[in-house]
């Protein structure tokens, strides 16, 4: 797998250098002299990335109510996510419906373009060159020189939300003083979830997320089962991706202190449940960032990978981060998770220390 990754990196660098050679070299320009009327933002590919982009979008909408905000998506889930966002003027898919994309984006000129990636990316660099914008902003990388009017330099491992908000340094630095919090755009809620939410008492349940979006992100069912067994006076609620639904049902059937829950159909439904939790326990997935939208207390389990717990660290006020000694969260000592859960529960019951 490693040689393949190196090949991809080498290709991206060659592409960037080719673009630098052939493209009209853009000179570094001072900050924008007047408020923009239109902006095109290239959206990254995962749910967590999207959620970390919402503080920028919300702040732009707050500071510039008349600003036209266009989002370029590279996958259907991201297209659907931002299509539901009332702060966004329009969303375009860069790989589908090319006639609409050409008419709405490529044939027009915008005040501002923002590429949020801090490294060469094939699709992002190509779209950055194709889209006509008076001022193009990106993050500093040697292969980005000459392709953008303004390159933002940040400390390594800067949080993704701050990297996105740093765009404001090129527009209106004062807006950085009070940026918006992350949020989930409103989406349809099924009758089944609506009914479930009515019976879900706030601050009573502990959520456990079984699923992960990357290799090394899964705990075993036995590990989760033992944790649930160790807290018989708590009631748990299980989350899972569709492909892990059988594991969710299996765990629900094993324990009487698990509240059985219906499957969610979109990320907003997940958020509506997370909003009501006492706390959430999850590997490093989008649920870490969903919790941040509602400031839900969190125990987050991370692989031994620095970028995961720095660039995509939890933003919930009350949190415990547990890092594996290996690239797999399965190797986190169960006692660490138990201790972290005790710690948050005791903090929540500080008025009743005899229970802790």
Describe the structure.
The chain starts with a helix and ends in an 8-residue tail after the last helix. Helix 1 (2-22) runs parallel beside helix 5, helix 2 (47-63) runs parallel beside helix 11 and helix 10 packs across helix 11 (286-294). Helix content is 38%, strand content 16%. Helix 11 links the parallel strand 9 and strand 10 (298-302). 37% of the residues are buried. The chain folds into two domains: 16-177, Glycogen Phosphorylase B (Rossmann fold, 3-Layer(aba) Sandwich); 191-355, Glycogen Phosphorylase B (Rossmann fold, 3-Layer(aba) Sandwich), CATH 3.40.50.2000. It has 356 residues and is of the alpha/beta class.
Alpha carbon gyration radius: 22 Å
At the first level of CATH, the class of the largest domain is Alpha Beta
Shape: elongated
Strand order of the largest sheet: 3-2-1-4-5-6
CATH-derived topology of the largest domain = Rossmann fold
Helix proportion of residues, in percent?
25-40%
For CATH, the homologous superfamily of the largest domain is named as Glycogen Phosphorylase B
Number of helices: 13
Topology order in helix (H) and strand (E) letters: HEHEHEHEHEEHHEHEHHEHEHEH
Approximate strand percentage: 15-25%
Number of domains: 2
Number-wise, the strands total 11
What's the end-to-end separation, in Å? 47 Å
Uncertain parts: 350-356
The largest sheet, given as strand count, sense and whether it forms a barrel, is: 6 strands, parallel
Mean pLDDT: 90
- The name of the CATH architecture of the largest domain is 3-Layer(aba) Sandwich
Given helix and strand content, the structural type is alpha/beta
- Characterize the quaternary organization of these chains: single chain
């Amino acid at each position: 797998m490693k040689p393949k990754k190196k090949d991809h990196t080498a290709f991206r660098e060659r592409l960037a250098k080719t673009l630098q050679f052939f493209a009209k070299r853009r000179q570094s320009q001072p900050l924008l002299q007047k408020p923009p009327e239109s902006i095109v933002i290239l959206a990254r590919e995962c749910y967590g990335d999207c959620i970390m982009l919402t503080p920028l979008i919300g702040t732009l909408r707050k500071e510039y109510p008349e600003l036209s905000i266009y989002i370029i998506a590279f996958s259907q889930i991201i297209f659907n996510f931002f299509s539901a966002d009332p702060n966004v003027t329009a969303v375009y898919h860069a790989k589908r419906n090319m006639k609409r994309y050409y008419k709405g984006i490529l044939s027009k000129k915008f005040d501002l373009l923002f590429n949020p990636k801090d490294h060469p990316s094939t699709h992002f660099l190509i779209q950055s060159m194709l889209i006509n914008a008076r001022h193009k902003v990106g993050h500093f990388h040697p292969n980005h020189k000459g392709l953008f009017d303004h390159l933002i330099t940040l400390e390594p491992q800067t949080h993704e939300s701050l990297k996105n908000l740093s765009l404001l340094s090129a527009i209106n630095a004062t807006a950085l003083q009070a940026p918006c919090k992350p949020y989930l755009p409103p989406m349809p809620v099924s009758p089944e979830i609506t009914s479930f939410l009515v019976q879900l008492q706030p601050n009573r349940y502990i959520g456990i997320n079984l699923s992960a979006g990357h290799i090394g992100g899964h705990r075993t069912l036995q590990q989760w089962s033992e944790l649930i067994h160790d807290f018989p006076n708590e009631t748990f609620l299980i989350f899972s991706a569709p492909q892990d639904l059988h594991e969710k049902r299996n765990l629900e059937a094993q324990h009487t202190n698990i509240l059985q829950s219906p499957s969610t159909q979109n990320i907003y439904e997940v958020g509506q449940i997370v909003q009501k939790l006492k706390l959430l326990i999850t590997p490093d997935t989008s649920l870490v960032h969903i919790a941040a939208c509602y400031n839900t207390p969190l125990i987050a389990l991370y692989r031994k990978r620095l970028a995961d717990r720095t660039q995509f660290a939890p933003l919930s006020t009350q949190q415990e981060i547990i890092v594996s000694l290996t690239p797999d969260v399965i190797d986190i000592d169960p006692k660490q998770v138990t201790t972290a859960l005790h710690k948050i529960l005791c903090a929540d019951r500080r008025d009743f220390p005899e229970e802790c």
